[in-house]
UniProtKB/TrEMBL annotation:
Pfam families: Radical_SAM (PF04055), RlmN_N (PF21016). One of its GO terms (cellular component) is cytoplasm. One of its GO terms (biological process) is rRNA base methylation. The keyword Transport does not apply. GO terms for molecular function: 4 iron, 4 sulfur cluster binding; metal ion binding; RNA methyltransferase activity. It is found in: Cytoplasm. Residues 143-318 form the Radical SAM core domain. InterPro entries: Aldolase_TIM, Methyltransferase_A, RlmN_N, RNA_MTrfase_RlmN, rRNA_lsu_MTrfase_RlmN/Cfr, rSAM, rSAM_sf. This is Radical SAM core domain-containing protein.
Length: 318
C-alpha cells in the first residue's frame, strides 16, 4: 500500500486531515545498487522478544537477566551498535559480534520534511536497497499529540496498481521483521517522540509478506509498546490472506483499498482484482469482523473523472 497513493484508512485520515502533502515517491529512486544476494538474516537482535533475548544470553554462557538488559538497550535506549551496549560486559559484546550478531538498525539515507511537518525517510538497508517510511505528526486542539508511522512491508511491490509509482518501479523483495520495526524506531529518532500509531501503507502489499508483518506487529506491540488498536494493516486484497490474518485475532484495524465501486472498474485500476472479486473480498471482510470484532475500514483514491458521484455512492451498498 503506497502511502499518499492510497488515501486513506480512518486512522490515517485523521492523522493527515487538513494537510496538503506534496511529497511523492516519484521524487525518490527506489534503489541504489542492489546486490542480487538473497537477503535472509537470522542474526539480528531487533525483532526478538525478551524471552528470545534471554535464551540467547543463556546460549552464550550469560545469565538470563542479560537478555532483559539487551531488551532494554534495543527497545528503550534504542542503541544501534553492539559495541555501544556499555552496560554489558565487553566479553559478552565480543561474543555477540563474533557470533555474527548485529542490532539490525540501518542508516537514514535521506529525509524530506514537508511544510506541515510530515517527514518522509529513505532508509538504506543492509543490502543497499532503499525503503520508504513516513512520519505524520498531528497536534490536537486539546493538546494531545499523535505521531503516525506509515511503514513499508516490501521493497517495491509486484501488484502494479495503475496509479501507483511504487508498483511501476517493480518489486525487489519482502522486508524482514526487523526492517519493518526499524522504520518505526527511525521515525521516533527523527521526531524525538514516541510513535503512537502505525499504518502498513508504505511500499508493498502487506498480505504478500504476512509472516514478517505478523512478527513485526508482535514486536511493535509487545516490545516497542504500541497498542494493537493503534495499528492498521492495509491491503488491496490478496486471496486467502484476510482469513489467515483473522486467525491471529489481532485487535488491529484491517483497511481495504477499494478504489472502485464495481468489479469491472476495479480490475482496470488494481490488476490483482481479477483473481479476487469484490464480492469475495466483502465476504472475507464480514468474516474478519465476526472473527475479531474489529472494524474494517475502506480506502478510496479518487482518480480523475473515471467515476461518477452516483457510482461512488454505490460503495456504500457493497
Ligand atoms: S498494492 Fe502495491 S502497487 Fe498497489 S497501491 Fe499498494 S504499493 Fe502500489
Amino acid at each position: 500500500m503506497a502511502l499518499l497513493q492510497h488515501l486513506c484508512s480512518a486512522p490515517l485520515t485523521r492523522a493527515i486531515r487538513s494537510r496538503s502533502l506534496t511529497l511523492s515517491s516519484r521524487t525518490m529512486s527506489a534503489t541504489l545498487t542492489p546486490t542480487r544476494v538473497a537477503h535472509v538474516d537470522s542474526h539480528v537482535l531487533l525483532g526478538m522478544s525478551e524471552q528470545e533475548l534471554q535464551q540467547l544470553s543463556l546460549d552464550l554462557g550469560q545469565q538470563s537477566y542479560r537478555g532483559k538488559q539487551l531488551h532494554h538497550l534495543i527497545y528503550k535506549r534504542k542503541v544501534k551498535e553492539i559495541q555501544d551496549f556499555s552496560q554489558l560486559p565487553q566479553a559478552f559484546r565480543n561474543d555477540l559480534q563474533e557470533g555474527g550478531w548485529r542490532v539490525g538498525r540501518s542508516s537514514i539515507h535521506q529525509a524530506v520534511t514537508a511544510a506541515d511537518g510530515t517527514v518522509k525517510l529513505l532508509i538504506k538497508l543492509a543490502d543497499n536497497r532503499l525503503v520508504e517510511t513516513v512520519g505524520i505528526p498531528v497536534e490536537h486542539d486539546k493538546g494531545s499529540f499523535r505521531l503516525t508511522a506509515c511503514v513499508s512491508s516490501q521493497v517495491g511491490c509486484p501488484l502494479r496498481c495503475s496509479f501507483c509509482a511504487t508498483g511501476k518501479g517493480g518489486y525487489s523483495r519482502n522486508l524482514q521483521r526487523h526492517e519493518i520495526v526499524e522504520q518505526v524506531l527511525a521515525i521516533e529518532e527523527i521526531f524525538k517522540q514516541r510513535v503512537t500509531n502505525v499504518v502498513f501503507m508504505g511500499m508493498g502489499e502487506p498480505m504478500l509478506n504476512l509472516k514478517s508483518v505478523i512478527e513485526a506487529h508482535r514486536c511493535l506491540n509487545k516490545d516497542v509498546q504500541i497498542g494493537q488498536r493503534m495499528i492498521t494493516i492495509s491491503t488491496v486484497g490478496v486471496p486467502n490472506t484476510i482469513k489467515k490474518l483473522a486467525s491471529y485475532k489481532l485487535q488491529s484495524t484491517l483497511a481495504i483499498s477499494l478504489h472502485a465501486p464495481n468489479q469491472k472498474l476495479r480490475e482496470t485500476i488494481v490488476p490483482s482484482a481479477k483473481s479476487y472479486p469484490l464480492d469475495a473480498i466483502m465476504k472475507d471482510c464480514r468474516d474478519y469482523f465476526l472473527e475479531t470484532s474489529r472494524r474494517v475500514s475502506f480506502e478510496y483514491t479518487l482518480l480523475g473523472t473515471e467515476v461518477s458521484f452516483g457510482e461512488l455512492c454505490l460503495c456504500g451498498a457493497l
